[in-house]
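Hello Y.,

Per our agreement to keep a running log of every chain we model this quarter, I'm adding this entry. I've kept the format consistent with earlier entries: sequence first, then predicted structure.
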Amino acid sequence: MHIPIDPGSSASPPAGAGGPNSLPVSLDHPAEEHDAPGPTKPSQPVATLPPPYTAADVPSQTTGAVAGSSDQVSPQPQDAPTKTQTTFLAQVGRWFEAHKFAASCIALFVAFAGLLVAIISVFPSFKSQYLSEEALELSRWTAFKDYIQVCSELVTRGRDLVKTVRSLDQTGPGNDGEHIERTWTLLTSVSSSHFYAAEETVLRWLLKSMKTNNDAADTLRRFPLTWRILGCTFQRIPLFSLAKSLADRKFMAILQQTLKSISKPVTPKDAVPATLSKKRKRTLEVTFDLEALKTRDGCISTGDAVLGALRILLARVDGAAHTSQNERMGAEHIKGLFSQPASDVVTYLAPILSLCEYSATSDLSCAETQENWIHTLSAIWNLRLHGQTDSLEVALYLSRSAFGLLGKLTGLAIDVDITLEGRVNTGI
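Predicted structure for the entry above:
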């Protein structure tokens, strides 16, 4: 509400009293009373508030001081663009706005250049990956080619083995045992398989040729390679068929005859007496010659081959417990071949102990297989028919060879064969 000025008063209103920002307020009466109609009351002195200050009334120095203090409190960021950069960016933006087609061309060119650089950088990896795949494929084809070649060689060797075995009836072992050696070479070059016709044929032929009593059969029985071939056939032929072949060809009689003959070596006249040798062991070059095979070294080599074949056979028999029914039946048949009375079994064991005694003073390099000789002897003895006179049979047939072996091993042996007649003459 505007309060009228007294016309009689010459005093001018205060500065800003009539302006838009002036707000006279009566302290004695509220504002609502001035709106009420009625007679005009006499004017009374009114106290007024000074108008608020505006931005124009604030001195410029104060504004500058505040601005300066603001700059000191919150400085501008260091990475903020300068005025020149801002101007340049604005000009570039205006240029792109004015030349949109040229800007699109430049963008496409930059994108194409980046794509080209990416392709060039990735191309060597594609090339190396392609080369690695090509090398892998080449290696696979090479391995497949080698496998085909190996299979072809195995088929060729198997065919040659069958031809060689079938020709043994016409050619025999050969003058120097060359057919036996060729059979051994082909037999060891062919792996074991379900087809065992060649192995069974050579087994039956060898046992048939070794059964007769002549020099040719004796040479074949003494030849170590013959027993190595038998050991190889013992590994490959099924036990049921093997037991039938061994029983038909009188294997036990051939074994007994061979052990008996090699337990009595022929000593040459110029031979040096055997002593416990500490020299370097040597390897004997065995030839297909009867006279050479009858020597002490020849008998030891033959005995090593015989015991090796027996060890293979007995190992297969012991390991047939968890096989098929036919294999178990074959194993029992083979055990039955060795199931003889103790008086017959000692005829196999006494020659083996004699071989051990000869080997104790030999310088042949067969120490690796000699460790299994006594184990094989024990396995044969365990398959006997047990009786009440077993200990007596051992004392009669094995005591001399056993004591002689122990004496040579301890260095206390005296190589003297005291017979019953000698005991009577000496009064022992």
